[in-house]
Every structure is written in C-alpha cells, then in structure tokens.
Design goal:
The complex is a heterodimer. Chain A is built from eight helices and two strands, in the order H-H-H-E-E-H-H-H-H-H. Chain A is mostly helical. Chain A has two domains: about 100 residues, no CATH class; about 80 residues, no CATH class. In chain A, helix 3 packs antiparallel against helix 4. In chain A, about 20% of the residues are buried. Helices cover about 40% and strands about 20% of the residues of chain B. Chain B has eleven helices and ten strands. In chain B, the strands form two sheets. In chain B, strands 6-7-8-3-9-10 form a six-stranded mixed β-sheet, sandwiched between helices. A four-stranded antiparallel β-sheet of chain B has the order 2-1-4-5, with helices on one face. The longest helix of chain B is centred in the last third of the chain and has 25 residues. The chains are: A mainly alpha, B alpha/beta. The interface between A and B is large, with 31 and 44 residues.
Chain lengths: ~230, ~270
C-alpha cells in the first residue's frame, strides 16, 4: 500500500512524509532500520541513479539551466522531477524491504492459505523465497570447492567472468537434479492430495491491526480517487 | 504385507527394462535388505514398491503389486502414501524446505492429509518420540547435521503412519555416527511392527538389522535368502557387493588357520 500511495501522491513533501511515517518509523520500531537502509539502497540504486540522471539532463521542454557538462545540460525542471522520481523509487524499495525484513515467509503463506489461497500456490510462494538463501549457501560451497581446485575468482574482470561459469553450472544443474527427488518426497507426504489441508496455527492478528489495515486501505482508495478527480490539483 | 509377483519395469524412453521378473514378499514387522552394484535396480525397486513408479516417475510396469492383499494399481499417490512411506538418500531434499521448526516439518505430511489439528500434533510428537529426536522439535531443520536431518525426514514419514516403509540408501551421505542413529531407529521401528525394505551399500548395517536379503544384478534377483547366508555367499563380490566386515574377518581367520595348519604339518615332518 505504501508503494502504491507513493506513486499516487503528487509532489515531493507527500511522498517524503509517507516514507518517514510508513517506512522509517516502523523500521525503527522493529529495529531493522540499518538493514533496511542497506538493502533498500542496494535494491534501488541502479534504477534510481539512471532515472535521476535521465530526468536531470533530458527532461522534455525544460528551459531553466542548472549547469552544463559539455553539450549536456542539466535543468531545474529536470532536477525537481528527478527528485520526485527518486523519492518514489526509495519509497517502493523501502516498503518492499520493510515487508521482507519483518514478515516470516511461513507466516505470510499460512495467512494466505487461511484466506483461501491454494496450498500449492502458497507452497510455491514460500519455497521460492526460502530457496534463495539455500542457493547462496550452495554457491558458496561450490565456489570454495572450485577455488580449492585452482579456479581463479579474483584478479581482473575477465578472470572473474571466466570464473563464474564453473560455479553457476554446478549450482543450477545441482538444483535441477534435486527437483525430482524433492518432488517424490513431497508426493510421499501426501502433498498432491486435493483440497484444503490442516493449518496448525494462524499468525496473530489483533482487532487493532485489522482496523489499521482497513483504515490504510480506505485512505489509499481515497487518495487515488482524489488524484484521479483532480480535487487537489 | 507388500507382495510383488513377476514385476518388471521400464523407464520412459529407456531402451531396456530396469527390473525383470521380481518376486518379493515383505511381511509385517520384517526388515528386508536390498543390495547390489550401482545401476543394479535397487532405487527402481524402491520406487516401484513405494508406488512412485510409475505414478510420479512415469514408465511402464508389468506384473502385480498388492498391498495387504489389495491391488493398488488405481490408488492415487496421496492414498498410497498413508500405507507406504519412502525415504531417500539425500536428507536435505526430503525436507519440505518451507518450515522453520522440526515440529512443523514432521507435521507437514499429516497436515496435507487434512487430519484434525489434535491428530496432527499427536502424530508429530509420537514420531519425534519414537525416533528420540523430540529435543530437536524447536530447531530449524535446515541447520541440523545430516544424520539429524535424515531422522527428521524419517519422522516426517512416520507421522503419516504408514504400515510399510521403503528406505533407499538412507545412510549414503552419513558418517558412522549418523549411520548408527539411523540403524538404531530402523530397529526400533521394526520392533514397533513396521515392515521395512532398505536398500543399502553398507553391508555391515544390513547384516545387523535385516532378517532377509535380496541382491540385485541387472534388474533381476541374483541372490535371495536369510541375510547371514546371502552375506556369506561367495558370489557377493562378483555382484559388486562388499562383504560385511564380520564375513571378511572370518574368511581371513580361516585362511590364516589353514596356513598355520600347513606350517605346523611342515614343521612336524622336519
């Protein structure tokens, strides 16, 4: 909702207040602000930098010159719009990162399942998220094994690129080879049984949380309506 | 009881059959071992007995597989999985990968069966208790040792309450301590009434837990009988199966004894 609201809100102050209230403050309360800033910046920087530069130097119809670098001209209008884009990108990446840092994948899928989503879709969603750390761990093991056999993963960029192939190959092929056994193991545990399954517990969800969610949803809808009807200009 | 009569099996797209004319009876409470060289057909036979071949794996099967006297050809896998459990050699691939605690991992199967919550919890604790790993209940299954993961995977199967268990090289990736843990667990399960078919390369383990043994060669049963007899058969090495250390030791002692006798005779002549 924060990500959508950041796009729906116009100007610069609105999204800044939104980021402060819906991303920074909750992250501080959850004590994940440091990790959030690092991860969100890592996620957003490539696209944020390119969007900022494109708008700063190539904003269509801009007339007020800010500075020049050879034939390229940075404009005031471009700078203002680039800032607006930048804060929106940071709002989106911050909101997504905050969600990732404060929600256990198991809780999410359990709640989705409780609300009627298919157990298979919930499993695939959860497994996709959980697979990433496992792949990273496997890649680390294979890298160590290949380096022990003389693979050069340091030095110049060409050597590093050449070093990727003997690592990526085993990681991907090993994962594919495991899929069949994993599928059979799931079959042996009744995974393909049609219909709903038993849920052992449901994530805590207080009345206050529920009211808060509905209020935020209502506010988001109101914001979109206001923007579409042009009441706030 | 699981009974196979004249069973043959061919993988989809394979030039020849992987199994030929297999007759096997796995009686309740019995542990039967399966040995053989690589590619002899051990894993394929495990898949056929468990029902995964051809249901999940595909391919063509001949002959008859019956479970407690019933023809199970038309049974879907989720129904069969409540009667026969199968475990594989890689502990990590047997874990669902989506649970944060050992307890949830063990409960994964019963949850899939949509059993009442009380029943799921009771079965999960019972399986953990039986394998004596209840102390691991709160641990992250991904952070356990290979032996512990294998026991958790077995507990997950046991929570399905199958009367029969098929284990395909459950100790292949385990160290001696892990192998001992799994071996002891199998003995406890058998004592509890489960019938178990176990494919293994480690003949010392087979010698200690199996009452009967089948040795496969090229998809056929090459040797069959009480495990002590089969493991002492002189054909074993030719079939690519290592003799258990007890048999090797006895043979060495016998050979040494014969030499000593010959030497003693030679000294007596002088």
């Amino acid at each position: 909702m924060t990500a959508i609201a950041a796009v729906a809100l116009g100007g610069l102050p609105g999204p800044i207040i939104l980021v402060a209230a819906a991303v920074v403050l909750p992250a501080m309360a959850a004590r994940v602000l440091g990790r959030l800033v690092r991860t969100a910046l890592l996620l957003a920087l490539p696209i944020a930098i390119s969007a900022f530069l494109v708008n700063l130097f190539f904003f269509p119809g801009a007339t007020q010159v800010l500075f020049r670098i050879g034939p390229i001209v940075a404009t005031v209008e471009g700078f203002g719009f680039a800032l607006e884009i930048l804060i929106r990108i940071l709002a989106i990446s911050g909101a997504v990162t905050l969600f990732y840092l404060t929600t256990r994948p198991g809780d999410l899928t359990l709640d989705l399942e409780r609300r009627g989503i298919s157990p298979r879709v919930a499993f695939v969603t959860n497994a996709s998220v959980q697979t990433v750390p496992a792949l990273v761990e496997r890649a680390g093991q294979i890298t160590a094994a290949q380096r022990a056999r003389g693979l050069d993963t340091e030095g110049n960029i060409w050597r590093r690129v050449r070093g990727i192939v003997p690592i990526v190959g085993p990681v991907i092929l090993g994962s594919i080879a495991e899929v069949e056994e994993r599928t059979m193991a799931l079959e042996a545990r009744g995974f393909t049984r049609p219909g709903r399954r038993t849920l052992l517990w449901t994530p805590a969800d207080s009345v206050r949380q529920s009211i808060g969610r509905w209020l935020m949803l209502a506010a988001l809808v109101a914001l979109i309506v206001v923007r579409l009807t042009g009441v706030l200009g | 009881m699981i009974a196979l009569a004249g069973v043959g099996y061919r993988y989809a797209g394979a030039a020849g059959p992987a199994l030929l004319d297999i007759d096997l009876e796995l009686r309740d409470g019995e542990v039967v071992g399966l040995a053989g060289a690589s590619e002899a057909g051990k894993t394929t036979l495990c898949l056929v007995v468990s029902g995964l071949a051809p249901r999940t794996v595909g391919g063509q099967i001949r002959g008859q597989v019956t479970l407690d006297g019933e023809d199970v050809d038309a049974w879907p896998m989720h129904r069969l999985s409540q009667r026969i459990g199968i475990g594989f050699q890689n502990p990590s691939t047997q874990l669902s990968g989506v649970t944060d605690t050992v307890f949830e991992e063990v409960a994964f199967g019963p949850m899939n069966l949509a059993l009442p919550r009380v029943e799921v919890v009771a079965r999960s604790w019972a399986a953990l208790d039986l394998l004596r790993i209840d102390a691991l209940a709160e641990r992250d299954p991904r952070r356990l040792s290979g032996g512990q993961q294998q026991l958790v995977a077995m507990a997950g199967l046991l929570a399905m309450r199958p009367a029969h268990l098929v284990l395909d090289e459950p100790t292949a990736q385990l160290d001696p301590a892990g192998t001992r843990m799994v071996g002891e667990a199998i003995e406890r399960l058998a004592a509890d009434g489960a019938s178990i078919l176990i494919a293994e390369q480690k003949t010392d383990l087979l010698a200690s837990i199996c009452s009967r043994l089948l040795v496969l060669d090229g998809g056929r049963v090459a040797l069959s009988g009480p495990s002590a007899e089969v493991l002492a058969d002189l054909e074993l090495s030719r079939l690519g199966v290592a003799e258990p250390s007890e048999v090797r030791l006895r043979r060495a002692a016998d050979a040494a004894g014969a030499n000593v006798a010959r030497l003693a005779g030679a000294f007596a002549r002088d």
